[in-house]
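re: ur question from yesterday

yeah so i grabbed the chain u mentioned. its 307 aa long if i counted rite. heres the sequnce exactly as i have it in my notes:
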Amino acid sequence: MVRNLLVRLHSLGDVVLASGTAVEMARSGSVGFACREVYKPIVERIPGNIEVIPVTGGWRELRGISAGFSTVVDLQNNFTTRLAFAGKNVKRFKFDRSLRRKVLRGADVCVPWRAGEYLKTWSDQGSPSPVLRRYQTPLENRLTVGIVAGGRWPMKAIPAGVTAELARLFCDTQGADVFLIGDSEDSSLAEHIVEDCGYRNVKNVAGEGGIARLISRIEGFDLLVSPDSGPAHIASALGVPVLVVFTSTSPALGFWQQNFKGSFMVDSVPCRPCHRHGGKNCPAGDQQCRRLIVPREVFEEAMCLIR
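ran it thru and got these structure tokens back, copy pasting raw so excuse formatting
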């Protein structure tokens, strides 16, 4: 049997975006998906004959793992993987950094959708759309909404005040149960948002567990509202309606398809995107991409996704 190795060590969103390529590779044989241990729960959700291979070390470990595989599809393509797979039969993802620099400088160009570029590394046929197995659906007759609170990059996060008002709108107008999700580092912020809301049916579950728990939590939502981050990619791959609120980033950076259904951003912010990850500070000093967000507009856009 043909065995092929797919390598995407990190990060959360990229591992999810690589799932479509893994599915297509599995059509022609078994696939080993090498990733960091923390992302194992994601790979375990990818349909098909796919074995997750947790990686805890460096290039020597990766070189040993590659033995016995016919082809290596290297979607990480960094110094570690280039060293590990030297002399092997390798297909490498090549990223156009010069194009990304043009986007960040404000040129009217877009980086191609990364999931599509991942698939092209393997084949010019098939669907690149990320997909994860979904094992549960939301409860009937009760709207359940998740909102991502905080995040690693402050400028990319939905402002706490907007999150609090969104939660109130979902509760007041829809009688929804709202869950604030995020990393353990976001739990304190989420708790302040809960207190600001003052509603019993707004709950802080940020940092309640690892990625496996995050996936199971998201798949039980009717809707997720999220910044441009890993949880949004998880929701999309699970088939959960997701509204992505873009602040300092944009789909032009290539992590989302252009004009995809489910995006929100403040109009007329010429400096967006200003940072490939979102950034920690506003270069312009006014945070217009975040400060001008109107919660009611976000709420109405989100409701359009599930009506």
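noticed a couple things. The chain has two domains: 3-122, 144-306. also The radius of gyration is 20 Å.
anyway ttyl
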